[in-house]
Design brief:
Elements lengths: L2 H7 L6 H32 L2 H29 L1 H24 L5 H29 L5 H29 L2 H17 L20 H14 L1 H17 L1 H4 L1 H8 L4 H25 L5 H19 L5 H29 L5 H13 L1 H15 L1 H22 L1 H5 L2
Helix pairs in contact: 2-3, 2-5, 2-6, 2-7, 3-4, 3-5, 3-8, 3-15, 3-16, 4-5, 4-7, 5-15, 6-7, 6-12, 6-14, 8-9, 8-15, 9-13, 9-14, 9-15, 9-16, 9-17, 11-12, 12-14, 13-14, 13-17, 16-17
Length: 408
């Protein structure tokens, strides 16, 4: 299909800056998700504990809690493009350093904790900048499709990255997988260089107040804006109670489904294949009028899929159920980003995403809890328990927050 025909179907692709952005995001997302699979497998191989997977993610979350609110301010002050490039380079450096440790047989669990912390710092700064960058290169009326396409790039990478690097880890060793992943991460930074000669890279906040004051201003903007507040509350339930099942997939793969690193890569790829299907469907659907209702429906769909997945002991069925759960996620995350960028004041967009990142950083609370439960009752039952509780809370949210249902 020609670019002209693609642009008619996906209007955001008509913008050359967005195409560069999409390519860079694909490479960075490949590295991000491949790193997650490689590191999760190494952690479980070194420790044999699902709880250790939780502590590994907790170091990522700690960095997010410490820096996410400031990360949004940083982007507003110094320009989204510069921040994205700088922190993707830092992420690549961390991966290459750990690859060297693995190659020289010096890798220890604490090294993986440090890598998780570094990547938490990267996410705290890169994610708000990356999200704000879309608002600068795609017109507002194309935002839903634009965010759906960005999430499609991520999920396409999430399919290819874990599956390919899972095979490399199993056949050639984690050091080679980490080396390849680090180089692809670096390419993700270089592809952003041509992006944004206009407003997308310009600072939106004058450098006058302290970082802390600007960060708190973003937090106040979210709490005082009812539309933003109900969206972020829904995200909090999603992140702390539903998403943690993804973080103990290594335990499910090893203990329930009796498979190795390549099998874990297939499971992760199946989940992200579903998310890709969901995000492409959302992009093709165009602008949705009742985005708040769609957000709640997507969250509930993902929760039900995850709950049933937790009871499966058949590999093929488990992969199919992860596709189903992923479809819900493929709708939920782009809709969440679109609602935030739609209802946030222009000068507050990156800081609002910083608050969003702060909420994502709380995910390790759920991961530690689900990991502890998995060590006691088994990974499968732990997944079902958390997913069922999150589904119940989404139903309560739909009934208790009419403002959310009315968001457009």
């Amino acid at each position: 299909m020609s670019m002209a025909r693609l642009s008619k179907r996906f209007p955001a692709l008509a913008h050359v800056d967005f195409r560069w952005y999409w390519g860079g995001l694909f490479c960075y997302s490949f590295a991000m998700q491949a790193r997650t699979v490689i590191v999760s497998w190494l952690v479980y191989e070194l420790t044999g504990s699902a709880l250790s997977l939780g502590w590994s993610l907790a170091t990522w979350g700690l960095a997010g809690v410490l820096f996410s609110l400031v990360g949004g301010v940083f982007s507003d002050r110094y320009g989204a493009r510069r921040v994205v490039i700088a922190f993707r380079v830092l992420s690549a450096a961390g991966l290459l350093a750990v690859a060297l440790l693995a190659a020289t047989d010096q890798l220890a669990f604490w090294h993986l904790l440090v890598l998780s912390f570094v990547n938490g710092v990267v996410s705290a700064f890169e994610y708000p900048a990356r999200t704000a960058l879309v608002s600068g290169i795609v017109p507002r009326q194309e935002l839903t499709g634009g965010f759906a396409l960005t999430y499609s790039a991520m999920n396409l990478a999430y399919i290819i990255g874990p599956m390919s690097m899972g095979v490399v880890t199993e056949r050639a060793g984690a050091e080679w997988a980490l080396l390849i992943t680090g180089l692809i991460n670096l390419l993700g930074a270089l592809l952003i260089l041509p992006v944004g000669r206009g407003v997308a890279q310009a600072p939106t906040t004058p450098v006058r107040a302290s970082f802390l004051r600007d960060a708190l201003a973003g937090l106040r903007h979210v709490t005082q804006n009812r539309a933003l507040a109900v969206v972020q509350l829904t995200l909090l339930i999603y992140v702390v109670l539903l998403m943690p099942y993804r973080d103990i997939l290594a335990a499910v793969a090893a203990d329930v489904l009796k498979t190795g690193a390549s099998g874990l890569g297939v499971l992760s790829g199946a989940m992200n294949a579903g998310a890709l299907l969901g995000s492409v469907a959302l992009s093709l659907a165009g602008e949705i009028k009742r985005r708040g209702k769609a957000l709640l429906a997507a969250a509930l769909f993902a929760a039900v899929g995850a709950a049933v997945f937790g009871r499966s002991e058949v590999f093929a069925l488990s992969a199919l159920l992860l596709v189903i759960a992923g479809i819900g996620q493929g709708f939920f995350i782009p809709l969440d980003n679109t609602l935030l960028q739609t209802y946030a004041a222009p000068e507050m967009r990156a800081r609002v995403v910083g608050v969003n990142m702060f909420i994502w950083s709380l995910g390790p609370i759920g991961t530690i809890a689900i990991g502890a439960l998995a060590d006691r009752v088994g990974a499968g039952l732990a997944v079902t328990t958390f997913a069922a509780v999150s589904a119940a809370l989404f139903v309560v949210a739909a009934a208790a927050m009419p403002r959310l249902r009315r968001l457009e």
